[in-house]
Amino acid sequence: MLSVEEAQKIILAEVHPLEAESVPLLLSLGRYLACDIVSAIDDPPWNRSAMDGYAVISKDTKQAFRDAPCTLTVIEKIPAGTIPQKKVISGTASKIMTGAPLPEGADAVIKIEDTTQKDTSVLVYSTAEKGDFIRYRGEVVRQGACVLQKGVLIRAYEIALMATIGISQAFVFRRPRVAILSTGDELVDLHEQKKPHQIYNSNGYGLSAQVVAAGGIPIMLGIAKDTREDLKAKLSLVSDADFIVISGGVSVGDYDFVKEVIADLGGTVQFWKVAMKPGKPLAFGRIAGKPIFGLPGNPVSAMVTFDQFVRPALLAVQGSVNPLRATIYATLTENIQKEPGRCHFVRGTLTCENGEYEVFPTWDQDSSNIVSLVKANAYIVLPEVSGDVQAGSKVLVQTLAIS
Length: 403
What we know:
Structural class: alpha/beta
CATH class of the largest domain: Alpha Beta
Strand content: 25-35%
Radius of gyration: 31 Å
CATH architecture of the largest domain: 3-Layer(aba) Sandwich
Strand order of the largest sheet: 7-4-6-5-9-8
Shape: elongated
Number of helices: 7
Helix content: 10-25%
CATH superfamily of the largest domain: MoaB/Mog-like domain
Oligomer: single chain
């Protein structure tokens, strides 16, 4: 069996970023940049006031104190969105609003709280230093500077930055189309009448939701019966997908035909088993050049293996440079029994109090118990070589926050 890390390396070496497309700025949220963003302008575009107050010559205020203010003549008012009309000279000041351009001659701003205006004069109660409350041209972004690099995940903050420098369209990598197929005679879809011996196709919906969360577009192929013929027929419907994900049929049972059908369709299987729990039976290969993943049929196993292998591949083809889940170390609060030989992904609840992370396993770690995954916000990652882990130990934790 391959280790989890070996399997991830093989998969990530086999996938490459998709082509880029231009989308309206707001539609780029959650996507990955396909090119560097270079600013065509300075930000701020001019020297501007960072406060409501008065633009002054700092030397004029050197003798200004609370009990002995200096008096300056107000020559104009400068609201944001207007251009100053007058030059500030010694003995004068311009009333200025936050964001307004600094008038010629001024080298500081006195905030309004330190002044009192009387008719055309203003009393200044504090000393200004050159540069006080001024945002200088290009202080935030210089024209020609690279402000965002290729591969960056676009969040609301990146959208705000791009809007600041006038970017209305973003070049991003295309979202991957992912065909999802569940297998099993026992499965029935949600709109069908369920018989006593059947269960609903939770994997089809759960895996499709994971595809969406990873930025992909799911193509639900439904359910294939436990026959070679039906599996081949369903896979023949895959034409415009970039990836294929099958749940069930990859173990060693009499009706586990996925690996055989991949071969029958001219595909290849690069590996089959991974040393992990849950999820040891895991197939990865290609059909007609498309990467195909054969995931276990148990719901938790399917979703955990998706997280570890399919999700990184989907993020990688969208341009992510860090496709694996973030990890931290936390203190384990309960004992965990474990046999060496496989890496365990234990569903857990991660908490933080006073800056200290703690994690405890959710109840019932059976691979069919989806409720224990619902209650989890992290995976406790126990390496292959480890045995039982005692409470109080520091353990590696993957966080399951949406990112």
